[in-house]
Amino acid sequence: MDAFTAFSYEEAFEKLEQAVSALQDGRLDLEQALKHYEEGMRLARHCHHLLQQAELRVQQLHITDDGNVESEPLDLA
Amino acid sequence: MLFPEPEPASDWSVAQVVRYLKELLETDEVLRNIRVHGEISGCKTYASGHCYFTLKDAEAQLSCVFFKYARQRSAAPELRDGMAVEVSGRFSLYERDGKMQLYIEQVELAGEGALATHFEQLKARLRAEGLFDEERKRSLPLAPAVVGIVTSLQAAALRDMLRVLRMRYPLTQVVIAPSLVQGSEAPAALARALDLLNEHGEAEVIIIARGGGSIEELWAFNEEIVARAIARSRIPVISGVGHETDVTIADFVADYRASTPTAAATRAVPDVVDLQATILAYQEDLGVLIEDYLERYREDLEGSERRLERESPRSQLERLQQQLDGTIETLQSEIRYRFTLQEERLKGATLRLHSLSPLLTIARGFSIVRRDDDQRIVTSITQVQPGDELAIQVADGQISARVTTR
């Protein structure tokens, strides 16, 4: 199981950017460089996957009897 | 007629006469549908949503009722005391109080360009207060995880916005705070919905929107209460009201003014196509970068191999061997040179020797005399005694002789 699958898109994308800039720094030893490369590629695939799988969730706000604000799924169809 | 024609002088009950008056008012052609202009005073709106005020001018006044259903149906601005208005409605009588009232269907600001004047005055006031200042504008999040929307659930605009959000950035979650978007109660409802989203606190950006309509229908977005709610929102607000040409007070206060609801939704989120392109570009970068690394390490490795080879015993041996070969070569040529030199010298010496050879002298008639016993050449008479054996060498041989005298 890939450890990255738990990441949200934002997290995964941020880590992808980090991997790229670490490699751009250019002072890694070969093992580190390969590690960042492989991580980066896995993160990129994860991001693509998340973008393809995503479905817009729509919720509606309402006020509960005790005065709190809550949201509940809204089906407009 | 509900009642029989009464006798003029008969004894009427209060209820009877009140109902009679009501009947008269409601059946009168003029009073059934009338427009009246005047100034609002004593305006009061109750929790029920009904609004009561007095319409007056310099000489007289009228009680007015603006019921909730009528307010919602109309596109009336929020009523305040002192407003010059033109109202339309019908007259009737409230039996309990015996009070004649004008039941209002519609309220419009009176006079040519009254709405525009109201708009400009409010705009100037809020601008002076600094509500439109650029420094107040907050930057919008690049990719909000939650988008808040304030609009009517029935609006086509909502469906348009959801379609855009779904298409562009389906990763986001939408939280809708439903609100009326027109009518006299809309301003307070819009402000409440904005506050509600702030209280909920999850939205990273809020869209306040309404589809196109007449200036009266969009008027709620020009009310101060809405402007203030936008200004106090901790969450950045995008306005998308009406069509491209409609500009409302809400637009001036909002952190970003989109021309339509659809444009607002577009501005609120990134496009998934762009995101995918960015990710692809990063993947390419990763490939190029790791190739650089590998190339660099490969070159380093090859360099090391070359250095190692240079330092190996075998190559040292080869180098020594080569050195030795060179030395031997030098030595050999040196020897050859010296040898040749000696040969030349020898040849010269031989020639010289030859020219000095006694044999040549002998050939000319001289001879060499040696003592026979020790072969010493005799050059003096003191070297011999009579009776000594001598060997005399001549050109073609040797003669043996004996000394007789000396």
Helix and strand composition category of chain B? alpha/beta
The total of beta strands of chain B comes to 13
The chain pair with the largest interface is: A-B, 36 and 38 residues
The average pLDDT of chain A is: 86
Distance between termini of chain A? 36 Å
Write down the overall geometry of chain B: rod-shaped
Question: What shape does the CA trace of chain A take?
Answer: elongated
Strand arrangement in the largest pleated sheet of chain B: 1-2-3-5-4
The biggest sheet of chain B amounts to: 5 strands, mixed, barrel
Question: Radius of gyration of chain B, Cα only, in angstroms?
Answer: 65 Å
Q: What is the oligomeric state here? A: heterodimer
* Helix content, binned percent of chain A: 40-55%
Which range does the strand content of chain A fall in?
15-25%
Strand percent estimate of chain B: 15-25%
Poorly predicted regions of chain B: none
What descriptive keywords fit this protein?
heterodimer, A: 77 residues, alpha+beta, 16% strand, B: 406 residues, alpha/beta, OB fold (Dihydrolipoamide Acetyltransferase, E2P), Rossmann fold, 3 domains, 22% strand
